[in-house]
Specification:
By secondary structure, the protein is α+β, with helices and mostly antiparallel strands. The protein has nine helices and 20 strands.
Length: 358
């Protein structure tokens, strides 16, 4: 399959971005300033990430809410139009097929935001092959080609965005709103993946370059997926394909709060209920590693010299200036417990710490 590209692809290349394949898309990993500088700019100022590789399924109709309720683990009855919600789509065995943000933009309009390359899987789960055509009560359409999504993040994200779009800058955390900018309708959500404040903005494709340039004029710096990954790791946030995926349940990942057990029906509920009753066999924990050497995915976690788990994500923390990792370890592992990470045959000491790292 040919690689897909963002509506902002030409802007990234003009800025000298290093482009890499990611989830079927060619996206910027970093710009000439480098991942460390981009990471620190987000922690101290404001940056913009192009996250157009994320999917957008526009789910509409009088049956839309009930269809989502029957498919996802969280409970939309706990929020209302104008809100966002983090949720999971499970496989029948209870493992996480995808983790998703739902933007509830109007009474019968939802933007379901899957991870890169999972859009078709989520649409099939919502309604099978007929979901694209739908009926009078429900429709799920892939709106991904129609927009770019820009994540403006950092402690100064809102103040700098205010000079571009005051309305967008005022969208509160976990809220979503339609905002007009320069004659263009934006969908703006108070969400992000960095541990910092900010918003994510869905911009019509034909206006994406203008909005990007307006952000640049407001001193919002571009940042690539490399910094986005180190930022989310410092924030202790899971990444599908690492902390979530086949064989990994929300309970093992420490995300049981996203499962509303009082809902009578959602896919994978029975398998997950059985796991809750028998107890999990592993648990996701944060490890701070001695020294600056970064742990890596797949490296064994050792206790008393014996492999008892594995790193799911690891890297160097630019803020802590130390190696950090998310790892599956025995369920009895607690804050302060000592382990080691096998780094290419060398055990390096690591301790369990409370998340987030930063």
């Amino acid at each position: 399959m040919p690689m897909r590209s963002s509506p902002l692809d030409s802007r990234h290349r003009a800025l000298g971005a290093k482009m890499v394949p990611f989830g079927g898309w060619e996206m910027p990993l970093s710009y000439p300033s480098g991942t460390l500088a981009e990471h620190r700019a987000c922690r101290g100022g404001a940056v913009v990430f192009d996250v157009s590789h994320l999917g957008t399924l526009r789910v509409t109709g009088p049956e839309a809410c009930e269809r989502l309720q029957q498919s996802f683990t969280n409970d939309l009855a706990r929020i209302s139009p104008g809100s966002t919600q983090y949720t999971h789509l499970l496989d029948e065995d209870g493992s996480v097929a995808d983790d998703i943000i739902v933007w509830w933009t109007d009474e019968q309009v939802f933007d379901v935001m899957p991870n890169a390359s999972n859009t078709d899987r989520v649409r099939d789960a919502l309604g099978g092959a007929g979901a694209g055509a739908g009926g009078s009560g429900f429709r799920a359409v892939d709106a991904t080609p129609e927009r770019a999504v820009l994540a403006v993040q950092g402690p100064e994200a809102r103040s700098r965005l205010a000079s571009v779009s005051p309305g967008a800058s005022q969208v509160a955390r976990n809220s979503v709103a339609l905002v007009e900018w320069d004659g263009v309708a934006l969908r703006v959500a108070g969400t992000g993946y960095t541990g910092e404040d900010g918003v994510e903005v869905a911009v019509p494709s034909d206006a994406a370059e203008r909005f990007w340039e307006a952000l640049a004029e407001a001193a919002v710096l571009p940042a690539g997926l490399g910094a986005r990954d180190t930022l989310r790791l410092e924030a202790g946030l899971p990444l599908h394909g690492h902390e979530l995926g086949p064989g990994i349940t929300p309970l093992q990942a420490g995300l049981g709060w996203v499962v509303r057990w009082d809902k009578p029906l959602f896919r994978g509920r029975e398998a997950l209920l059985a796991e809750r009753e028998r107890g999990i066999h592993r648990r996701l924990r944060g490890l701070r590693v001695e020294g600056r050497r970064p742990p890596r995915q797949g490296q064994a976690v050792l206790r008393d010299g014996e492999a008892v788990g594995a790193v799911t994500s690891g890297n160097f923390s630019p803020i802590l200036e130390a190696g950090i990792a998310l790892a599956f370890v025995p369920p009895d592992a607690d804050i302060g417990d000592e382990f080691a990470v096998d780094m290419r045959g060398t055990p390096v000491g690591a301790s369990v710490v409370k998340l987030p790292f930063v």
